[in-house]
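Q: Make up one entry.
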Amino acid sequence: MFLNKEEVEKRLKEVLQELNKYDLPSDVYLILVGSASLMLKYNLKRSTRDIDVVVRPYIGGLGDILARKGFQLVAEGFLNLHPDYEERLQPLWEIGKVHVFALSPYDLAISKISRGLDKDISDILESDLIKEIDFEKLKKLYFEASEHWVGDRRKFKWAWEDFESAYRRKFEKTFRKGSKPR
């Protein structure tokens, strides 16, 4: 089943309400890390199969509740993020002890670009996310972050080059004028 923006919002609200029915032992933090975040915050028009989320702290049973609503739990170790991404998290919703955050525009872009997939590059360029970032700042943060990742360094460089090439094709006129796209 594919989820559009309205369905993602509905499922998030359902999860917030359901989780607050329980006597949670501590506050729970849900961090949206994928396309659902782009749909909610940056007007991405495509649909998604699941809602990728990092959950803190671990609480037994939480994964089952989230999975029933179409959430995919993602371990931070599977994401390529900047080491200080938490400082830039953006609050979305809060009900009781459950808090929902989204990655910042830069951290979402870094995570998407590092995967090196055409669909992720397209998600960035076809959403309003691109309006929220300064290209040179993104480049600086991306390569700072990549110094903390494990794997083939060439892959991270190639992923950036693919993004930069697509970015320049889309905004070629803007680059000639020397300003960022708006």
Summary: The mean pLDDT is 92. The first strand starts at residue 28 and ends at 32.
